[in-house]
Each structure stands twice: as C-alpha cells, then as structure tokens.
UniProtKB/TrEMBL annotation:
<dbReference type="InterPro" id="IPR006311">
    <property type="entry name" value="TAT_signal"/>
</dbReference>
<dbReference type="InterPro" id="IPR027056">
    <property type="entry name" value="Gluconate_2DH_su3"/>
</dbReference>
<dbReference type="Pfam" id="PF13618">
    <property type="entry name" value="Gluconate_2-dh3"/>
</dbReference>
<protein>
    <submittedName>
        <fullName>Twin-arginine translocation pathway signal</fullName>
    </submittedName>
</protein>
Length: 183
C-alpha cells in the first residue's frame, strides 16, 4: 500500500530541481510564495502586470482547488505566462483584460478587487460569471497542463509517474487499488 505525503512542504533539492525549468518560480520561492495583493514574486515579472499575475494565481487556485497543494504550485503554473506574453501581444491583452474583468466583477458584487475577496465561494461565483469567456477558457485549459504536469504535484496525489520504462502498469501497480474502500 502506497502512502501519500499530505504535507505541503518541499525539500530544497526537489524545489531546486523543479525551479531549473522556471526561473521566475525560483524567485517566487525566495520571496515567500503566497498569493496576495502584495506578492513579492509578482513584482519580478517583466511582461505582465504584477496585479494581473496575482489574480491569475488566485484564479488558478479557485478553478482547481486542492487544499493539499501550497500556493507555490499555482504560482509556478501561471508564471510561464510572463514569458509567453513577451512575444504575444494578443495573449498579454487577453490576460490583462481578463484579470481586469474579474476585478470589475468582484468590485460590482463585493466592493473589492478579486484578490481581496476572502471567501472562496464568492470568488467561484465571480469565476462562474465569466466561465464562457475566452479568458476563462484559456486559463482553465492551460492550467490542466501547467498545474498537473509538475512532478512535485504528482506525489501529492499518489501518482508515481510514467510506468512505460518500468514495464508498464501491468508490471507496476495494475492491481494496486488501495484508494478503493473495502466493502
């Protein structure tokens, strides 16, 4: 029976290995990885406004909520948008306007910016109001890959990674159904 690590801490070596592919995520770690209006990690980005990036990170957590995942995984999932926006003005505009739309909807409903809405249920209500927009569809679609393709996240969910190089799932865990409750 596999044991799933439910802690949200990460060892230095694991973080550094993952951060090699995302330099901005490494800077985020040094700055204290939190999603908030004054997040220091967002100030180091060059192509998208810091306020937009914090909104994107908060929206990422609200779209795919996992209590066992630390904010840093959501931050690492949206930080690549900064580099992608460098050569893509259309993407930059989509993200900036989408975040502004979330803020406007939050102000209209709750009198504050999206990032400052404390209740998750209220933020989800805001997201539902824009779920048909191109912005929301782009963010949700990209997050499926950028969030769940982080190897450090796999262990949090009990996924052991590819089994092809180990003979496939028949040889490695095909009958391992410890997640199924016994009846």
């Amino acid at each position: 029976m596999r044991e799933i690590d439910k802690r949200t801490t990460v060892r230095r070596r694991v973080f550094l290995r993952g951060a090699a592919t995302a330099p901005a995520a490494a800077a985020a770690a040094a700055a204290g990885l939190t999603i908030g209006p004054d997040a220091a990690w967002a100030a180091d980005l060059r192509h998208i406004k810091p306020a937009t990036m914090t909104v994107l990170a908060r929206a990422a957590r609200d779209i795919f909520p996992h209590d066992r995942l630390a904010d840093r995984y959501y931050i690492a999932a949206v930080v690549p948008y900064d580099d992608m926006a460098a050569g893509n003005a259309q993407l930059r505009t989509l993200l900036e306007e989408g975040a502004a739309q979330l803020d406007a909807e939050a102000k209209k409903r709750f009198g504050r910016d999206y990032i400052r809405v404390a209740a998750e249920e209220q933020r989800v209500e805001i997201l539902k109001s824009v779920e048909k927009s191109a912005f929301f569809q782009k963010l949700r679609g990209d997050l499926v890959v950028s969030l769940y393709n982080q190897k450090e996240v796999w262990a949090k969910f009990g996924y052991e990674g590819s089994s092809h190089e180990h003979g496939g799932y028949i040889q490695r865990g095909f009958n391992d159904i410890d997640w199924l409750p016994e009846t």
